[in-house]
Design goal:
By secondary structure, this protein is largely without helices or strands. It contains 1 helix and no strands.
Length: 186
Amino acid sequence: MKDKLTRIDVEITLASGGSLVGESMSELDLSGVDFQKTSLRGCDLRYSNMSHANLEETDLSEANLGGVNLSESNLAGAVLRKADLRWSILLGVTAVGADFSDTGLLESRLSFSNFTKANFSRSDLRRSDLSDAIFVSTNFSEANMARVDLRHSEISGADFKDANMYELKLPDNSSSSSPDNDDIDY
């Protein structure tokens, strides 16, 4: 088992072009760190503060991000396939085109964020708060969206094909029972 890194270890590794793949960085204050285009694949980042971090085009596949704070971070084009984001906070995030496929996001907060063209296919979003956010042309196919709150969100062009929509709270301007709604694919 690897020793847990410190913030200084992380910054030195990034500055020298070293690898952080699989490293343990749980419970660290990594706020504002520039991880752009870095591989954090398989890292342990549980309960870390990554608010205001630049994670644009970063590979976070299979990383453990349970309880992480990613508020106000840039996740545009990031890859989070099969990551564990249960109980995480993603408030005010820019995640345009990010890949959250097969990701666990149980009871997470994704409000006030932009997830345009993001991929949440086959993800577990049960009991998560996705209110007041932008999900234009977002892929939720086969996702578990039981008891998710999407109120006051923009979901035009979103794909909900074969998603579990049990007690899903949709925005007032859409309805899961309306097959005539051209903006949403059920």
